[in-house]
Amino acid sequence: MNSQTAQPNDTSEGGDSAEDRVRIFDTTLRDGEQAPGFSMDRRAKLCMAQALEALGVDILEAGFPQASPDDFAAVEEIARSLRNTTVCALARCQTGDIDTSARALERAHRSRIHLFLSTSPLHREHKLGMSKQQVLDTAVASIERARKYCADVEFSAEDALRTEPEFLVEVFSAAIAAGATTLNAPDTVGYTTPSEMVELFTYLRKNVRDAHKAVFSTHCHDDLGMAVANSLAAVSAGARQVECTINGIGERAGNAALEEIVMALKVRAPHFGIATGIDTRKLYPTSRLLTQLTGQVVQRNKAVVGENAFAHESGIHQHGMLKHRSTYEIMRPQDVGIAETTLVLGKHSGRHALRQRLETLGHTLDDEAMESVFKHFKALADRKRDIRDEDLEALALGLDPDATGPWHLVQLNTSSHLGGNASANVKLGHEDGREVSEAAIGDGPVDAVLRAIERATGTDMVLKRFQVRAMSEGGDAQGHAQLTARHAQRDWQGSSVSTDIIEATAHAALAIVNRIERQARDNSADASVLQGATA
Ligand code: KIV
Ligand code: ZN
After folding, report:
1. For residue 202, how far is its CA from the centre of ligand 1 (angstroms)?
2. Residue of 173, 53, 73 whose CA lies nearest to 524
3. Residues 217, 185 contacting (CB under 8 angstroms)
4. pLDDT at 304
5. Fewer CB atoms inside 10 Å of the end CB: C or N, the chain?
6. Ligand 1: does its nearest atom lie under 6 Å from the Cβ of 116?
7. What are 26's strand-pairing partners?
8. Ligand 1 within 6 A of CB of 287
9. Where does Mn(2+) bind (predicted)?
10. Share of the chain above pLDDT 70, in %
C-alpha cells in the first residue's frame, strides 16, 4: 500500500474554506452491488471502476475483501488499476477484516481502509451485545491497527442517526485521537429528516474534540425517499464527504443517488456554494454503463438520468421552451452527457467522425476498444440506414468484455408457428477451437434459443427475467435484450444489442454463459495460486 499518497489530516476540509469542495465517495461497487439484482462479476466491477475514475469520484469503495475471495480479488484488481482515485476497502472492526483489507489494497496508488461499527443502543444491545465502553475500545483498537497499514482511515458509526448524540461525540472524539481521518455518520436505515441532519452535523462539528482534524461524512439510505435531501442537508451543515451510488442503487430502497447530489450542487451553486470534482458530462454515460452491466434499467422519470428527465410533452411546456429554454429547463441535457442532436453517422463515416461523436456522448475509448466499436459500427451501417446516438451508445456500451468469449455465436436459425412450438438451431464456437451445434424446441423462439444454448454449452440456467427494449426509433432500431438467469444459486446478468432481437437474446444468453465459465476459470486460478502460496 502506498502510504505516501494517503491523505493526511487536512484542516481545511472540515470547515468552510474559500474554495469549498465536497468529496464524492462512490459506493456503487460495495453498498450498491450488495443489493439483490445488482451483483457484478470482477470484470464488470473493473469496467465500472474505470468509468467512475473517469467521472472524477474522489474515493471509490471497491468492496468488502473479507466477504469472499471474489470480493478480495475484485478490490485488489481495482486497486492495481486506478491511478488518481483513492480506492477504499470496507472492514468490520475485527483484526482479520483489517489485515485482509490492507492486503487487498497493497498495490493501490491511493488507498483507504473504511472501518464500521454500530453505535446505536438498538444495535449495541441486539446486534453486538456490547456496552458503550466496549464499542469505544473496539473502535479505537481497530483504528489504531488500520493506521499501521494506511494513513487514510475512515470510521463509520453504523446507525449513527439513531445513536445518542453525546455518545457519538465521545466515539468520534476517540476515533480522531486514534488516527481516523474521516468520520462518517450513516443513516443506515433511512430514518432521518433533513432538519435532524442539520442539527446533528452542527452539533458534531461543534462538540467533537479536534473536529478540524477530520472530514465529516454523510451516508444516507432512501427508505423514506429522503436520501438525497438528507445528504444535501448534511453538506449544508459542514459534511465535506458524501457517500452515494450511481442511479441510487443500494440496500433496500437504495443509497443517495450520486448524479442527483452532484447536479443539485451544480445547478444550485449560488445556494450551496460548494463544488465537486465530477465531470457532469459523464453522468449519463456512467449511469447507462451501470444499467448495461447489471441488466437493471432506471425508471423513466428518474431525476437527471431517466428517459423522461428532459422530455417536455405538454403543449404549454413545449411552447414555453420554444420561446425561452429556461422557462421549463433548469439544466441542459448536454450538462449531464445527453447529446443534443440524435441523428448522426452513416455507412460512409470514418473512424475520426465516429470517435468524435462518441466523445460528445461521453465515451472515451482506447484504440483497441475503438477498433472494435468501429467494426461493429460498419456492420450495423450495412443493416441500418440511419445510425442514431442511441445506436452508437449501444455499441460503446456493448464493449462489455463479456461479449468476448470463450463462446461466440456462429449461426442461428429460428422458426415459430402461430399456435405451435418454436424451434432454434445454434452453432457455437469456443476459443479452444470446438464448434458445437444443437437444436431445441421451446414455447417461443426466445425459449428455444436459450434451450439450444444450454444444451450446446452444457450450462444449466433458469431464466428469471427477460426484457427487450428498442434503443432508438423506427422499424430498424436496435433492440437491447437483457436477461437474468439463475445458475449455481446465483443470479447472472447478460445483455446485448442487435437490430434482430432474437440474435440480441442469443448474445445476451451467451454473455451469461461466458461469465459463468470465466468465473469458474478465475476461481480455479485463484485456488491454485493459494495452493502455491501455502505449499
Ligand atoms: O449504511 C451503512 O451504515 C453502511 C456502513 C457500512 C457505512 O453501509
Ligand atoms: Zn449503507
Report:
1. 21
2. 73
3. yes
4. 95
5. C
6. yes
7. 60, 244
8. no
9. 31, 219, 221, 255
10. 89
